[in-house]
Amino acid sequence: MSATPAEPPHPERAAAAEPARGADPGDAAAPNGPAVSRPEFDRIFEAVRTWGRWAPADRGAWNRVTEEHVRRATGHVRSGRVVPMALPWNTRPGPDNRKPALHHMTDLGDVESPEPTTHKDFLAADYHGKGVTHLDALSHIAYRGRLYDGRAAHECVDAAGARFGAVAALGPLVTTGVLLDLPAVLGVRWVEPGRAVRAKDVLAAEEALGVMIGEGDAVLLRSGHVRRRAELGAWDPDAASAGFHVDAVPLLAERGVCLLGGDGDSDVRPSPVSGVHSPVHALAVTAMGVPLLDNLDLEALSAATAEAGRYTFLLVVAPLNVPGGTGSPVNPVAVL
User: Least C-beta-crowded within 10 Å: which of 162, 189, 309, 319?
Assistant: First the structure.
């Protein structure tokens, strides 16, 4: 069960936390963390794997969230402040939006018809990219040809969609959210793209923010990506993004998280694992059965949690009910 902080991080606490990020001599030369060999990565995969643990299997770690977890999560609501976390629907191409979402009008109410006249529009998105806030379901990521629970990907996903691990199997999630606000901890405006968040950083953030990640919690990592983009402009986040290093995943697995999310896509980029472009995706989704929230806007939540002096909250995630979908655009909501 998550602890509630008594106060927001103070500058001296932030300063005390910063050496934990730079303790390894190699960090300055390799800000995305130490390189991880493929055999070492496979050992981590096996260590955090939860295949065969839950039924229904295609809800994965969301099976951890019981009615009691939901009741406890409502205890984080004090002010009733509601904070949405989705990016605006992005129809403009750019280095971080190579497949822009679509939005056009299909009815402008200019055809004679009985009153009232109507206005209608059309939405579409190839949302598994960097421009749309979305949820990754368990059918989204395969490693060595296997989805979560060891299911053969080619048998479970075809042109008609996913028969296992579809987003419709997940349903909505209501649980405790924990914000790991790295810029607040470190006293910086943002964490630079390419910087790895390692296990020691998670522990330092917990101490600085006064939280303890618990079983069934959803962990959201703020790097300040959205703020940096607003001030400096867009860049290619496939080339450089702040995110978790693979050495943070065993700690998160030990804590029993049900969901990971961030203002990037949870992976540090460039990847520290040769031949694996999204290692945290593979560990979380495929090994642990933990869905991911990508491309969140955590700036308003950062301000709200700092003002409240606590970094835990009620989190509501309600994906679209898409049979066969490998994920869904989503507007997660925090309630403080």
Answer: 189
